[in-house]
From TrEMBL:
The keyword Hydrolase does not apply. This is UPK3L protein. The chain crosses the membrane at residues 166-191. Keywords: Membrane, Transmembrane, Transmembrane helix. GO terms for cellular component: membrane. The keyword Transmembrane helix applies.
Length: 223
């Protein structure tokens, strides 16, 4: 087959990481006339070792085990039936494959087809092969070399915040300390003043209350 696997062009998070990459599924690649028992496998190999790959090697066996890669130059993973790659894909179908997403089986020799994290940046090349009980039925071409992101050594990671220089950080720290001291002095000055203004009680002033008495005229003395 002339088909060549490719990284997905979609802007997906983690499209390419230090141990994984995301491929487009091989939709409409393998003839649908194939036996329904046909399984489609992804073969991952080091870019320099693709010529050493024997396509007649059966997937999910020790020679193509993930656990011994890269000593065995290639491994086969993500085996699925041809029916999983319906053409055209139904609306809403996820049509990408994440390579390197399984960690639980990375050292489990009973799972030679583990889709484990890739051990190095590569580069790698991949191809799809179709297998059934009769053996190899079809295969695609190798992809272009795929190089993963390289993890930055710890000693190379900058310890400055947001790329700021050490001098800027020191200056910012000094200004912050001076501001804190100034604020503390201002509080110390305001506390006595507030106490003198609001703490003293106003002197009590007593006001005598006067009651007005009505004066009645006395009756005239009788003569």
């Amino acid at each position: 087959l002339e088909y060549k696997p490719t990284l997905t062009p979609r802007p997906l998070a983690g499209r390419l990481t230090a141990s994984t990459f995301v491929l487009e599924q091989p939709r409409c690649v393998f003839p649908e006339s194939q036996d329904l028992s046909t399984m489609i496998w992804l073969v991952v190999a080091e870019a320099a070792a693709t010529k050493q790959f024997d396509p007649s090697t059966e997937p999910a066996t020790a020679p193509l085990a993930f656990q011994t890669f890269p000593n065995n130059t290639a491994y086969a993973t993500l085996g699925t039936s041809l029916r999983s790659y319906r053409c055209p894909p139904p609306a809403g179908d996820i049509t990408v494959l994440r390579v390197g997403s399984e960690t639980a089986c990375a050292h489990n020799l009973s799972r030679p087809s583990c889709n484990g994290p890739l051990p190095a940046p590569g580069p790698y090349r991949v191809k799809f092969v179709a297998w059934n009980s009769s053996g190899l039925q079809a295969q695609t071409r190798w992809s272009e070399p795929i190089t993963l992101l390289k993890a930055e050594p710890v000693y190379n990671i900058s310890t400055t915040a947001s790329g700021r220089s050490a001098g800027m950080i020191v200056l910012t720290s000094i200004l912050s300390i001076l501001f804190a001291v100034l604020l503390a002095c201002l509080v110390a000055l305001l506390v006595p003043w507030c106490s003198s203004v609001f703490g003293s009680k106003a002197e009590a002033v007593s006001v005598r209350r006067y009651n007005t008495h009505h004066v009645y005229d006395q009756p005239a003395a009788r003569l």
